Input
Amino acid sequence: MSVLTLEGLTRIHGAGAAEVHALRGISLTVGPGELVAVMGPSGSGKSTLLTLAGGLDEPTAGTVRVEGVDLAGLDGTQRARLRRTSIGYVFQDFNLIPALTAAENVALPRELDGVRRRAARTAALQALAEVGIEHLADRFPDDMSGGQQQRVAIARALVGERRLMLADEPTGALDSESGEEILRLLRSRCDGGAAGVMVTHEARHAAWADRVVFLRDGVVVDESGNASVEGLLGPRHVQ
Ligand SMILES: Nc1ncnc2c1ncn2[C@@H]1O[C@H](COP(=O)(O)OP(=O)(O)OP(=O)(O)O)[C@@H](O)[C@H]1O
Ligand SMILES: [Mg+2]
Output
């Protein structure tokens, strides 16, 4: 069964003369083990696609299924629970909670799901170690660099057993070496059976993906399998 299925997804913001068609009938299926890169110019609908896939926004038309569950059939509480347990989300602008330390930010989704505080902290420290910043566990977001905050955001998405990873330009604030590390993490999560969708502007980052979907004005204008990704973007990075 696919982990993520998008069918005929349309999202119109505003109304009347102010209507913006952010997405116009997108369909996409991502299976276990697959990492899909989404590319396209600014305003083409990449972030909109991710927020709909993550249940953070509702489509004007079309359906989103995560592990076979139609998000439209869930109430707010059920949807929030599915997000916490199944979906790891890395936002374009981090979305960390400033009043919580790095470890508390990462532990929060687990605690909300009833995991005991100490177990949640252990899981959080492990996720922070995965992204190389365990030593910053007790620091607050405002006292960290952009790149460090980005790693906390990624640790929060990795914590637990989430089956769907959604990342909006996850390497944006990182230098190229750290960026590669993050991509390697996403890749290994997918190799371990998760499904991933990542927005990126960089061709060499997209080369880590199995497929690349190109958006323009809210429609898919091209979709490339791995072979053509390599042809287009050069050989896939090997560690
Ligand atoms: N809340 C909103 N209200 C009105 N219009 C919106 C809203 N969110 C997005 N849009 C519009 O929808 C379109 C798609 O936006 P989106 O953020 O998905 O683009 P993007 O591809 O992620 O761009 P970028 O590369 O700059 O992050 C844009 O025209 C944007 O202005
Ligand atoms: Mg965006």
In short: The domain at 4-95+163-233 is CATH 3.40.50.300 (Rossmann fold). DSSP finds eight helices and ten strands in the chain. The pocket of adenosine-5'-triphosphate (ligand 1) is lined by residues 13-14, 20, 22, 40, 42-48, 92 (CB under 6 Å). Strands lie at 4-13, 20-30, 35-39, 61-66, 69-70, 87-90, 164-168, 195-199, 211-216, 219-224.
